[in-house]
Amino acid sequence: MRMRTVSLRVISVLVLTVVFVIATVVFTLFDIRTQTEHMEASLVEEARTFAREMDAVWQFMDNSQYTINNTSDGTYEFKGLHCAVVGKSVGAIFSAGNNYAIRYTNFEPRRAQDKPDAFEAEALTLFNAEKDVTEFYRIMDGGTDGDGRVRTAADDGAAQFRYVQALRVNESCLECHGEPAGEIDITGFAKEGWTLDSIGGAISVVIPLDQQYRALRQNVVRDVGFFLLLATFIGLVVFGLMTVFVLRPLEAMKRAFGEVGEGRLGHSMDDAGTAREVSSLIERFNAMAGELRVTYEGLEEQVEARTQDLRRANEELAAQRDSLEALSEKLAKESQFKSDMLSMVNHELRTPLTSIITLSQIALESGGTDAEERSSWEEVRKSSSVLLGMINNMLDIARSDAGAMAVSMELMDLGDIVASVQGTVGPLALGARVGLTTAVAPDVPLVNGDYEKMLRILENLGTNAVKFTPPGGSVSIGATRDAATGDVLVTVADDGIGIAEEDRERIFDRFFQVDSSPTRIYSGSGLGLALVREYAAAQGYTVTVKSVLGEGSAFTVRIPASAVVELDEDE
Fold it and tell me: What CATH class has 298-405?
């Protein structure tokens, strides 16, 4: 059940009822426990009183033995009226005609009826084991016979309070019960051999609990009844206060909100007879209703004004949209013109540059020129090659921007590509007095990719490595197989100037150069590495760089295992 479908009045009644029931149960259990503890304390004190009275009778008879057993002239004449007989007789007389029982008992009684029952035996055992313990009691089932003999609950099922108090042996006891054991005393019984530290037995008191339990039940019923009346009165007072100060104001606010919701903004609430918090809430509601009334009165004018503003804004947006469409069309035409112009210029420049490179190579290979002319021809060939590379890069960038970069995936032999790169980069390395080495591991397989673009990747990386390596340095181009992943790694490494950490990602941006000052040493357009990443991404490869400034760089093209072509050994 969702709580918002239940009224606050019902929730209040339910909560008060639950609290009422729980409080009643807790109070009842607490009262029963308290009354029981009081009853047990009262029973203990009553049993102690009985025990003290019987002990007093015993002491009286002990103190009166001389008077009882001696004649007026001082002649001793034992009358058989000793303290044990009198104490037991008084207990029997006291127990006659009621359910109370008071008797003496020990482990070696001289009469069979004084033999201890199970409870008394437990108490006597405890007294003998622990000398400091002098009493033992418990509430039990059972009753007593008229002669004081304890009977079990099976006889009448009545509850009893059992109390046993230890009897310590004193000097007067030793006359009949002392040492030597077995000697016949004046009463005709054999002595037990007790000493002053012995337990001579115990006083056993049995108190029926019918009357106490009736009183306990009456007290609990009386207390719980009073608690119920008090709790009911408190609950009614709380509910009444909640109804007057909370529920009624809330219902009035509900009606007021309905009035406002239906458009009757002139409605207001009266906060007379409400609590401070509710009065504050009503004041805020009246203030809100007044603000809504003022706002609503000028709402139509505001709506009209906003409508006019919105119409003008729409007209301006439409004009700006037309202007943007015209500008976009103009930019598209200019971009197309730029791409066409760049492609045309690059195409027209490549032919003469290729001729210049070829004629320079022929002049160098003819051998008919002196050293100075050969140096000039070499400079012409090198500069032309650099310019041709820049033109090729710009042409590829233009194709990429125009979305015309095509990728032809076919089988490639990386050994052939590395050999071709060595033929292209080798002369540049020789002229720059930089050592160039290549190595392809035997386990490098064929891969799927675009031959021309892979060749351009390695040429750009190799050319950059030679350009940024000082004379006497070295450049290596190698291909290996990653045993863990199955990927093929093509690495171009050098021991040149290196790359600062903050520039390692930016070097792949178009037209970015680490040294862009007018006095920079290294030439270039800043497109080579950008094309390397674009060529690699077009084939599904990745390019990473590791470098230490002043120690060199290593660019790695990772060809994934999915592009590797595994051939059977039998083929």
Answer: mainly alpha
